[in-house]
Amino acid sequence: MKYVVLIHSNMQPWGHPTIDFTEVGRAIPADERAAMGKEFDELLAELSASGELVSGLALDAPSTARTYRWEGKRPVSTDGPYAESKEQLAGFFVLDCATRARAEELAAKFAGPGDIIELRPEMEF
Q: Could you give the CA distance from residue 62 to residue 13 in angstroms, rounded to a whole number?
């Protein structure tokens, strides 16, 4: 079963890795942030080797987004995401896990300082 790990963050300024651009992340000493980054790189290598990591992307700043909404009888586009939240979607990873429990175990490892992680299963048609 495929799961998406969505990373929501309120980075100021926008950048990746998110730990370097959140208030709580910048408060962590540089050597600890480097160790956390190394652990995350090792996690991604492990998931890639096991075949559980399908893909992942870091997303550009929300200000670069276009939003499409249906108005009347056609779609209309506008600048920006206009989300009702401080946190914006910063990136995502797609995992292919045998069980939901395994996906939940892995999603917890994606949580970083200043981020909110959402785990959502793929909808099967």
A: 11
- Please tell me whether the overall predicted TM-score, pTM, comes out greater than 0.90 for this model: no
Measured CA to CA, the distance from residue 66 to residue 69 in angstroms comes to 10
- The per-residue pLDDT for range 64-115, each reduced to its tens digit, is 888 777 888 888 887 766 656 677 888 999 999 999 999 999 999 998 888 8
Tokens representing 22 are 């959140």
- Distance (Å, whole) CA 88 – CA 61: 9
Tokens of 94: 């797609």
How far is 56 from 112, CA to CA, in rounded Å? 16
Nearest to 58 by CA among 101, 6, 95: 6
